[in-house]
Structure formats: structure tokens, C-alpha cells
Structures
1.
Amino acid sequence: MAAPGSDAIAMQQIYIPRERMKALRGDPRLLKELCALCGCKAELDDECVTVEGDAVGEFTAKSVVYAYGRGFEMADALRLAREGNYFDSIDLEDALGSEKSISRIKARIIGRKGKTKKYMEQVSGAKISVYGNTVSFIGTSEALQEARAATEALIKGSMHKSAYARMEALHRRNKEAAHDASF
């Protein structure tokens, strides 16, 4: 066992949905880009992605692959390799239970022609993925907080206008706090 703080090489296996694994396998450039950015090695087998590298590179690669598995495009998932970006997710099955409720809420979060999701991304600055039974977010901690607030309001049954107002108010507060902190 390596001593704490050493640069020992580790290995992690990340399981992602079959469709996402198929897409990853179909474009080898995605894995090469991940490896170059995270400074690690990655291999695909039938069921999982195996990443190997130093602790930081491996952790980052694992986060990126997991986000990719939750429906993000690789370019968006790679934002996690930049300092100050984080991943968050809401499991709709835990929050709602029935498939009918999940389907209805997913439709509310996406909106007609994707307008709701696009608006929440525009205001918060977070990237949002609605995939399977999850809604996932990538962005700064403030962006995640804002996008999650609007999403949770929609899950609880709030009107879109109310969910937007909640997100916009949080966005204003976060901007003011950042502005005040810079002085």
C-alpha cells in the first residue's frame, strides 16, 4: 500500500448506461481527449470504463465519465476538469416514485422545444442534463444552487414563473455577493 501523499497509480471502474458506452466506443477521440486533459489512461470493456492514473487525474476522469454517463456531451462533462466546476444530480425516482410522475416532471423541466431547460441554463450558467431518471447539473457552486432551486421548485409542482423567479432571485443574490466580495 502506498504511503499517504505519494503519487501512487490507482485504478477505478465507472459503470455507465449501455447507450452512453456505445456512444463513447463509437468516437475514440472522446476517450483520447479525456486522457489528455486528465493525465490518465482509460480503457473500455463491455460493461465499464476503467481509468488509471494519479489520484487527482483519476478522480477527475471518473467525474467526467460519470457525467458523460448521465447524458452530458463530452465537451460539457470535461468542464469538470476545470477548477471551480462541480457535478450535482437529482434522482427523480427517489423524489417522485412513479414512472408517470417522472415522465411529467421531466417534460416540465425540459419544456416545449427545450425552452425551460435552455432558460435555466442561460440564467444560472449551469449545464443541465435530463437523462433516464435523473436531472444532473455541471457548473460553479452558485450555478448549481440556482439551477437546482428552479428544478426542485418544478418537481414540487410550482408554476414555471415561480420557479424562474426563485432562480432569478438567487442569481441576483449570488451576483451581489460576488460583487461585494471583490471590494
2.
Amino acid sequence: MTAGGDPLVVDCDAFIDLTDELPSEYESVLDAVALPTSHSATRALQASQQAGTQGEAYFAKTGLLVRPDVAVRIEVVDPSPTGLIGWGSTEFSRSLSISGCSGDKWMAFAGGFLVPEPQCVKLLVTTQNGRESVLVGVGAPCQGQEPPP
């Protein structure tokens, strides 16, 4: 688990699937990545309590879809500075970067969120074309969402 200033680098070869279409609960962010955000998902992600080296935490498994040939950075920002993210490996960090994987379809990476308690996590997605903030309900709903199943 890393929580330093350097982003976790997602290995392009770690994708688990390819798709032409986004799942209905996913929102495309800057046409670079897609996640189940508070705007697209009616319910928050289900999170289960995990015991680990960092103490008790809640893990919510969800895929990250990445558009090919787009470099992107994703960061956990306030109001949830203690949340961690991780896709494409077993590592978690406050930020990750994807170099711009080659291909012609959305690439799916396994992973998710690790938070100290259920919360609404704010992410900042940055590409060469801009920056956008999104909210993801992790074990607890963001405004406008229902609790997890």
C-alpha cells in the first residue's frame, strides 16, 4: 500500500476486459475514464469491512474503464483525503496514473476503493484536455444516491 506523493502507475497489460460500450451505471469523465459516479449510479458502491496492516478499512470493488491512447491521472481529494484507490494491481494510493494504453476499445481494470469508513469520495481526473471532479459513494451514498444494496 502506498500513500506517498508519487502516483501509482497502472500497467497497461493489467486490463481484464475490453468493451465498446460503457455499463449503464458508469459515467465517462473527460472521455478518458469511466466510473460509477454519483451522477450515473443510483446506489453507492457496496463496501465490506477488511482487516489489514493499516487497521480496519472498508473495500468497495469496482472496475475502472480507460479510453485507449489517453494519459490520465486520478487523485483522491477533499473531503475524503484518507481514501485510497487502486486498479490494475494489489497496491492502493491517493493517486494513480495511466500512460495512455494503446488499443481501440475501453480497457477494464479490476480494483476499487479503500476507505477508513463508508463515505462519499471526491476524485479529481486530469488529462491533457482538462480537469474534472466527480463523486463516488463508497459504502455510503453521495447526495442524490441511495445507500448500497
3.
Amino acid sequence: MSIFKLILNTVPRPILIKLSYLARPVIAFFLKGDVYTDPIDGKNFRTFLPYGYETQRKNVLSPSTLSLERHRLLWLFLQQETDFFSAEKKVLHMAPEQCFLSRFRKQKNLAYVTADLHSPIADVKADICNLPFEENSFDIVFCNHVLENIADDTKAMQELYRVLKPGGMGIFQIPQDLNRATTFEDNSITDRKERTQLFGQYDHVRVYGRDYFDKLRTIGFRVDEVDYTQKIAPEMVERFCLSKGEILPVCYK
């Protein structure tokens, strides 16, 4: 086994991701190739890195941007289906992802605000269940892989709806089991190992099923369930290392 593979298999995930972020240029250099492409920066690699909390998924973490399947899918949707990169927009990004943060901040067309209760990279310290923004403030709201951590996700969704402008767009990705009709949660389960087994991570409080979209609709959103990988050529789905069949919840007020 190579030293590189040994590190991937033995270093705990949070430490590995931090090391990967610091060592991105070196890792990207050694993995250069022409098999896979990260559409966020256009760089090509012979392989992507593995990633996962308990069970690692192979070939999913970009060596250059550290994007995952969901990030690359969102980027392609914004790039090809919206005017996000050209029109003037006021944007709220809850729990901003590193692969997007600097790129979105550099865009001249965006008034870009980031918020999170704990993240040191966010502009505003804010509880998603009590956002410090006036209603109808933002043209676009991103809140990706956050709601599964929030005990009162109904209140969080109501706050996202409140601060979105009429006609505005929100994208609220979550880890979702499309084989499950209804969302599963059980607050009586407190053991971290058991929570990890049932919910995917110890800090998740539920596993969303297909009813997630209808819950957003009860808040007032018009929801488009977008399987965007269907619009992308199969060979490009593979080249971009996307998760075939992943649904983008594109919400409008």
C-alpha cells in the first residue's frame, strides 16, 4: 500500500479534510490527469479523493476545490439554468461551503452575505431559527446540508421563507433517502454511535424522505424537484463525478 493510500485509509475524516484543504495544491498536482473534471474550476484529474463519514464513497472529493457531488451539481445548475453569474442579486448563504465562498465573494454582480451560528468563515453569526434579517431581503438563499441538523426544521424553513423576496429562489439541499416515503426522526435516541448508524452522522437529527419537498410546500414555497443529472450527458455525469438521480430542491416564493 502506498503512503498516500495509507493516509486516506487511516487518518480520521475531519483531520483528513483539513489537511487536504491546506495541501490542495500538492494533492492536485500529483493527481493531475484527464479522466475526471471539476466543473467549478475546470481542472482535470486521474482520480478524485474518497469521502464519507462512516462508509467512504470512492472518487467523490475534488482535489482542487474539495467539492463533493452535490456542490458540483449545484454549480452546473446555477451556471447553465440561471442568471446567478450575471444578474445583480442579493444572496444569503447559510453555512457557506469552502468550495463556493471565495468564488461567490468575488462576483461583482452579487451582494453576498454569509451566515452561520458557529462557522468562523461566516460574515454574520446567526441562528437559522431566528435570522437577524428583515423579511423579503434576499433574491437568492442557499442553505445546503443544514436542515438535517436543526431540531425545529419547520421554524428554520419559515425563516428562510420570510427573508426570501417574492419571486426569489432558494436551494435547500439535504441528505435524502429517496427510497423512504416519509422522514424518520427519533429524539429519544441520544447515543452518538446509534445516531450515526440511523441518521448517517451523530449530529443529524433525521433522515429526510421523499416527503421533504411537500414539507417545504406547506411552508409556502413552490418547489421544483429537479433531477438535473437527467439533463447532463451520461458521460459528463461520470466525468464530473456526480450522483446520478440526486434531486435539487429548487424553491420559489
